[in-house]
Amino acid sequence: MSKQTFDLAAQSLRELNSALHALNGQTNQTAWDVVNPKGSHAIAAGLDAPLDVTVHGSTGYYCAGMNKHATVRIKGSAGPGVAQNMMSGAVIVDGDASQYAGATGRGGLLVIKGNASSRCGISMKGIDIVVHGNIGHMSAFMAQSGNLVVLGDAGDALGDSLYEARMFVRGKVKSLGADCIEKEMRPEHYDLLEDLLRRGEADAKAKPEEFRRYGSARKLYNFNIDNADAY
Amino acid sequence: MTSEFPHTPPRKSYTFSDAANAEIRRAAASGIYDIRGGGTKRYLPHFDDLLFLGASISRYPLEGYREKCSTDVWLGTRFAKNPIHLDIPVTIAGMSFGALSGPAKEALGRGASAAGTSTTTGDGGMTEEERGHSKTLVYQYLPSRYGMNPDDLRRADAIEVVVGQGAKPGGGGMLLGQKISDRVAMMRNLPKGIDQRSACRHPDWTGPDDLEIKILELREITDWEKPIYVKIGGARPYYDTALAVKAGADVVVLDGMQGGTAATQDVFIEHVGQPILACIPLAVKALQDLGMHRKVQLIVSGGIRTGADVAKAMALGADAVAIGTAALVALGDNDPVFEAEYQKLGTTAGAYDDWHEGKDPAGITTQDPELYNRFDPVLGGRRLKNYLKVMTLEAQTIARACGKNHLHNLEPEDLCALTMEAAAMARVPLAGTDWYPGKNGF
């Protein structure tokens, strides 16, 4: 198996994604280095094979968007919408992530080793997100399912109007959004969290018992006039 | 003592009409705004207020049954490797599985494919019924992203980024608990039976500069094969069209306020947006100002019912139209044959709009198996095909009478307006004059 290197200073984004899309599960060209990303958008978007792509530098919008099966590691920071609508696989950001990280993700694992900006995990639908630092306001807005783990603090309106997603925050939560409440940590949540921290490369930094769990109060699931002020 | 003079006859207020008072009482009793399906029910200036001039000494007509009048349309010729070629310029607008039953979606696919046109998914993901029965399927990319996945993106024939909808520009979707069945809940990743309210704007982009990058991402994911449509509601059609073009759209879909919805607040349907007649000329002007008319195609929708409406929309500069409500009526929605059942629901055929309640006697806007199993998708598909063919024949009839050998050759000069309002909106002369309001500054 040879490692492929792709230089975005010499070749185009289209050539990169076209080459990656041409690979399937039977390829032996699974390891790729992408150099000179220089904030390009949509790097490694739409992958559909168990590739291992390392981007050496910071990326623009939608890196690894709609990822399936692949592992994409960003040796830098990620622009807005990293791993948006990810289906499976893993995306690891060594630096910070801009807004909408992991938006609408349906599966897989997103790890952000720095901080994540606003709307992290917005509308998430099954993805697991582990943020080693802090997350910004309106994170997990309308989050439907999946897990959001935050080792640092959360900004305003965490989990506003969420459905069945779980959130675990170790630090302070500035405020909770509509219909989001703190919930009891039960044994299964400690087990879940232990696994998430391990997979999120954060088990050396935090222990499950240091976290609080947040989720939906389920009071806005059906319209009730007595809750009108919350809408 | 009784007066010997006649009483003043009872006089009801125009402002506080029976309908207005009934709504006040309903709001007071329930504490919630009125939710319903469909489009606006108010009077609006519309295509009915335009007429074709027909041929004369200076324009000669084409022979009705012998001389060719083509109807095909290419969509997505700007950037897509695989643009779409349709036999007729009447497409089926986006309507979700969830809002509609599986058999109804199947019927739309059957009818559209038989007539040589496309169907469109909706706010609930792509079903096998519609993919399997639609030769050409447009996959909507909506703020909710319910069911969104790259496999369906790749098996779609085009992608429609939905920014707005004519019935509710600035509003998100709504699907109440009665229609969140097990299957709908699973496809949308939601708990069964909840009142689902979709987001009104996309979760991972805002504004035209972001949209440009989002379109780039969708093109990259699909290897630049698929046409990318951008759908806008009739809010600010000049600027929205220009910005969609700037963002890289292949096709702009413009939906006026007559366009329907599965469910939203009545106040939204009736009070937000502009009629399609007012929107088309502004969108066409934006395309012309950018030198992109006919290069970025324009599909318009909202109140299209007949071939005359199709011809008028195209004469104003559209490349194609989309129908939603009319397609449902063709399938059997609001058919008087179900009058007894409409009466039981407290309504009447032609007025039934509680689509969100999922009790549709026609089996179209429901997830109740007992109701949707009444609906025959093969028959429904045949009815839709017939209707689409009739619309096309009607539009051809008019085009030939105007001397055009292709529907796309219809032009504003073929039209006049019956009212000042229509003349001003459509920017075609008031009948009997060479003037419309605003022309030459007057």
Describe the structure concisely for a colleague.
Chain A has helices at residues 13-21, 187-199, and strands spanning 4-7, 31-35, 52-56, 71-74, 90-93, 109-112, 125-131, 145-150, 166-169, 180-183, 212-216. Chain A is mainly beta and 231 residues long.
Explained architecture:
Chain B: Residues 80-332, 356-404 form the Glutamate synthase domain. Chain B: Pfam families: Glu_synthase. The complex is a heterodimer of chains A (231) and B (442). An 11-stranded mixed β-sheet of chain A has the order 1-2-3-4-5-6-7-8-9-11-10, covered by helices on one side. Chain A has one domain (38-230): 3 Solenoid (Pectate Lyase C-like), CATH 2.160.20.60. In chain A, 10% of the residues lie in helices and 23% in strands. Chain A contains 2 helices and 11 strands; from the N terminus they run E-H-E-E-E-E-E-E-E-E-E-H-E. Chain A is mainly beta and 231 residues long. In chain B, the strands form 5 sheets. Chain B has an 8-stranded parallel β-sheet with strand order 5-15-14-12-11-8-7-6. Chain B has a two-stranded antiparallel ribbon with strand order 1-13. In chain B, strands 2-16 form a two-stranded antiparallel sheet. Helix content of chain B is 34%, strand content 14%. Chain B is built from 15 helices and 16 strands. With 442 residues, chain B is α/β, with parallel strands linked by helices. Chain B is globular and about 70 Å long. Chain B has one domain: Aldolase class I (TIM Barrel, Alpha-Beta Barrel). In chain B, strand 3 (73-75) and strand 4 form a beta hairpin. The interface between A and B is large, with 41 and 30 residues.
Q: What letter string, H or E per element, gives the SSE order of chain A?
A: EHEEEEEEEEEHE
Q: Biggest protein-protein interface?
A: A-B, 41 and 30 residues
From the structure provided, what is the oligomeric state, counting identical versus distinct chains? heterodimer
Q: Which residues of chain B sit in consecutive blocks of at least 5 with pLDDT less than 50?
A: none
- What's the CATH topology name of chain A? Pectate Lyase C-like
Low-confidence stretches of chain A: none
Radius of gyration of chain A: 18 Å
Please tell me the total number of domains of chain A. 1
Mean pLDDT of chain A: 95
CATH homologous superfamily designation of chain A: Glutamate synthase, alpha subunit, C-terminal domain
- Tell me the name of the CATH class of chain B: Alpha Beta
InterPro entries (chain A): Glu_synth_asu_C_sf (IPR036485), Glu_synth_lsu_3 (IPR012061)
Protein name (chain A): GXGXG domain-containing protein
Protein name (chain B): FMN-binding glutamate synthase family protein
Family (chain B): Belongs to the glutamate synthase family.
